[in-house]
UniProtKB/TrEMBL annotation:
Residues 160-321 form the Oxidoreductase DRL-like catalytic domain. Pfam families: DRL_cat (PF21135), NAD_binding_3 (PF03447). It comes from Tepidanaerobacter syntrophicus. The lineage of its organism: Bacteria, Bacillati, Bacillota, Clostridia, Thermosediminibacterales. Residues 24-136 form the Aspartate/homoserine dehydrogenase NAD-binding domain. InterPro entries: Asp/hSer_DH_NAD-bd, DRL_cat, NAD(P)-bd_dom_sf. GO terms for molecular function: NADP binding; oxidoreductase activity. This is Homoserine dehydrogenase. Gene3D superfamilies: NAD(P)-binding Rossmann-like Domain.
């Protein structure tokens, strides 16, 4: 079997292309288009975005002439433009999921409801799905994966995003028979559970990112979501609710991630967690009881054991995403996907004292943040997954700052796709 690079080169030489449909042109979406249009054997002929001008701008930034970009409102218009070698932009994501020339959909909005809708429509229409929308994946990924399997298509997370990068390390070690003690990521930003778009706005503007996105980084919801995805794809569990989050250098990780009786932080092995001081890298800590392997690990300067760290000092976020699309189409393989029933959940916690009748605003907002916990604990407490919250979620009772919010404390939008999928998932698993 040819490797992926050779396979794409061969495809290009034969005049073929993997056609990607993109939903969402934020920072990640722009990066995906820029990279795909510089790769062999791949193309993005259509983008859906709620703001057409941003979709047009994304193509132009990637070097496409404005005269070659057409606004479309129907499937037939989109297919005609693509058949003529042009590029299409639309406000309607369903067009992207329906058109025949598209092989695989990349969902990059970060909005759970949109992600769930896009994935569901893509699966229905026989398109592979690359879910860069981790927020949707940790909420309804297990049922979407089951549906995709039944349809004979691939549902996958993205290479380059931290969960995908961690999963690649996990597979590398697990395939060789190492026992994985811990897996995780470095945290780029300081931790402040009270972060909100107002107090994050000056820094967000300096860094050129959305204030809500930065808020989700700083209040650690993003980290909780990403490590929930890792847990659901590997079977590793959270070290504790909200994780420990120690500080250390890469060389310290084998000791830090050992059992408490051995001087580490762990009550148990086989966990996910994050670390201050090693960003932007990802890691796994492994162990072995083999004297032969221990001798070899010492010889190649990986330490004397019993724990060892495998560390990747970068993750290329959206730059690597096209590789997951290519692997889905060419090899029918996911980069990262849920292995079955949820192992972990990112539950909803009040960011401040909240009153009955207040609307919650979800990830990166003013009212709540997310904490990872085991799916078992979340179920016992009837805890509300943070991905189910949107602007129409209303509190039915007062909630104290730091209190976990349960299903019975809120009124949810019953006709939302993600909630309906979640109810199916809960019944199925």
């Amino acid at each position: 079997m040819l490797n992926l690079n050779s396979k794409l080169k061969e495809l290009e030489e034969k005049g073929g292309k993997i056609n990607i449909g993109l939903v969402g042109t934020g920072q990640m979406g722009r990066g995906i288009v820029d990279r795909v249009l510089r790769m062999r054997g791949m193309n993005i002929p259509i983008i859906a975005n709620r703001t057409i001008e941003k979709a047009r701008e994304t193509f132009e930034l990637a070097g496409i002439s404005p005269q070659d970009v057409y606004e479309v409102n129907t499937v037939s218009q989109a297919e005609k433009a693509i058949q003529q070698g042009k590029y299409a932009v639309t406000e309607d994501f369903e067009i992207v999921t329906e058109i025949l020339p598209v092989d695989v959909i990349i969902e990059a909005t970060g909005v759970p409801e949109v992600g769930a809708n896009t994935a569901l429509k893509s699966i229905y229409n026989g398109k592979h799905v690359v879910m860069l929308n981790v927020e949707a994946d940790v909420t309804v990924g297990p049922i979407l994966k089951k549906m995709a399997d039944s349809a004979g298509i691939v549902y996958t997370g993205s290479a380059g995003d931290e969960p995908g990068a961690i999963k690649e390390l996990f597979d590398f070690a697990d395939s060789m028979g190492f026992k994985v003690v811990a897996a995780g990521k470095g945290k780029n930003n300081p931790l402040n559970r009270e972060a909100n778009p107002d107090n994050m706005r000056p820094e967000a503007e300096t860094r050129g990112i959305n204030p809500r996105m930065l808020t989700s980084f700083v209040d650690a919801t993003n980290t909780m979501v990403e490590l929930t995805a890792v847990a659901n794809a590997t079977g590793l569990i959270p070290s504790c609710r909200g994780l420990v989050g120690p500080t250390g250098a890469v060389k310290d990780l084998p000791k830090i991630f050992s059992l408490k009786e051995d001087g580490g932080i762990l009550d148990k092995c086989g966990v996910v967690d994050f670390v201050f001081g090693i960003a932007p890298g990802v890691f796994i800590v492994v162990t072995t009881d083999s004297p032969v392997t221990k001798q070899i690990m010492s010889y190649i300067s990986l330490g004397d054991g019993p724990n060892y760290v495998f560390y990747r000092p970068y993750h290329l976020v959206c730059v690597e995403t096209p590789l997951s699309a290519a692997r889905a189409v060419l090899y029918k393989e996911p980069t990262i996907s849920p292995i079955g029933a949820p192992v972990a959940e990112t539950i909803t916690v009040a960011k401040k004292d909240l009153k009955a009748g207040e609307h919650l605003d979800g990830i990166g907002g003013y009212t709540v943040y997310g904490l990872i916990d085991t799916a078992e604990n979340a179920k016992k407490e009837n805890a509300l997954p943070i991905g189910l919250i949107n602007e129409n979620t209303v509190l039915k009772q007062d909630v104290k700052k730091g209190q976990a919010i349960s299903y019975n404390m809120v009124e949810l939008e019953n006709d939302s796709t993600i909630l309906q999928l979640r109810r199916i998932q809960d019944k199925f698993f």
